[in-house]
Amino acid sequence: MSKSISIAVFVASLIAAGAVAAQGMLVNDAADKVIKKYQAASCDQLTAQKAEPPSEKEKIALDFLARIRKLEWPSSTKSPHRF
Questions:
Q1: Total structural domains in the chain?
Q2: Residue-number span of the structural domain to which 36 is assigned
Q3: What are the angstrom distances between the C-alpha of 22 and each of 5, 16, 17, 58, 70?
Q4: pLDDT digit string (tens) for the chain, length 83 residues
């Protein structure tokens, strides 16, 4: 019984580690894409892009980030010295 539980825990931890690694790769790819965009663009191009309305993908990403920010906001403002 103990052996089967430890195998199940091991498999679950491998799956979780794989998911975290994949998420990290996606974030790195997105960050690289943003960095390349700003390195390759001139100030005039960036100003013109800022004037355009966001695409559907950008709207989804901004909505997702706003939801994460709402979830994290209370914990990020807590002072560690308050009781």
A1: 1
A2: 2-76
A3: 26, 10, 9, 21, 24
A4: 577 888 888 888 878 777 777 667 777 787 888 888 888 888 888 888 888 888 898 888 888 878 877 766 555 555 555 54
